[in-house]
Amino acid sequence: MELDNIIGQSALVSQLKRLILSNKVGHAYAFSGAPGMGKRTIALSFIKDLLCNNPKNDNCTCISCRTFNEGTNPDFYEVVSDKKSIGVDSIRDLQQDVANRPTYCSKKVYLIDDADSMTVQAQNCLLKTLEEPPEYVVIILLSVNIEALLPTVQSRIINLRMNPYTKEEMVQIICTMYSVRNEDLEFIINFSRGIPQDAINLIEEGSVRELRSKIFYLLERPSDFEQFENFRKYALDNKEDVHMIFDILLSFYRDCIMLKHGMENRLINLDKKDIIRDVVSHYSSHKLFAKIDRLEKLRNSFRYNINFQLGIDSLFMEIQEV
Ligand SMILES: [Zn+2]
What we know:
The longest helix is centred in the last third of the chain and has 19 residues, at 242-260. 55% of the residues lie in helices and 7% in strands. It has two domains: 2-161, P-loop containing nucleotide triphosphate hydrolases (Rossmann fold, 3-Layer(aba) Sandwich); 205-320, Zinc Finger, Delta Prime, domain 3, CATH 1.20.272. Helix 1 packs parallel to helix 2 (39-51), helix 12 (242-260) packs across helix 13 (273-280) and helix 12 (242-260) packs antiparallel against helix 14 (285-303). Strands 2-3-4-1-5 form a five-stranded parallel sheet, sandwiched between helices. The chain is built from 15 helices and five strands. The chain is an alpha/beta fold. Bound molecules: zinc ion. Zinc ion (ZN) binds at residues 52-54, 60, 62, 64-65. Residues 52-54, 60, 62, 64-65 line the site of zinc ion (ZN).
């Protein structure tokens, strides 16, 4: 089965395979989880197996699978929207298609990616199909925050939650796609906390490691004013990096707490252990927790249009203050 190629999410994958093989697939599912968890990948494998005429076969070449691979299977319909939200018109188009019976197999599958962006009107419209779907219809939503959907919609959908991947699964996923040096792999896996897309972004934007080196340098030498000033200017000119600067700083202070409590094996920045150990001696646990708290508040204020330069100045005061 196509689902056999999925790395990790083993409980979910077994559940999906059982549904297909016992012919007990319901009418509506949501794959939910953080961005970058691979919701789409697993959903597409599920859909392909669902539409396949011989789902037990590996590398099946039935007409349904062949056309699915080519992107022309008429029994698979994806809602696409050129706007920021999915409006009622897109759902009406879906409903028109629902009226036609499947072509190649016993099911028709409708995929709504980014389902959270459906307008209330669109959701109410979809509700009609969810309430009385023709027997061949399966609707699949991909959602980051399923609680944001109308309760009436939620109640008609089986939510399949994706959990973060284990370290071993992350290594497997990354190593099938990239050749990464061992010392980098450790950092990438720890920093991305079980979210494959985050790891991929880290690999493709090598600049993150450079950014981390700069920040760790400053954390180690808070009195190097010249480097501080250089980095402050850099941050002011590179707005898009601010989020990552916060991620790196927070990972550093969390590591300090871990180290203080003897949990060395749980460090995100394991390869920078020596620097963390140097710095941690200047802090009490209480001070570290307070720092994390302030940094998180400051990060949030960037989301709410804080004056950018003021925000950066506060951030740098926070880095400098031991
Ligand atoms: Zn097939």
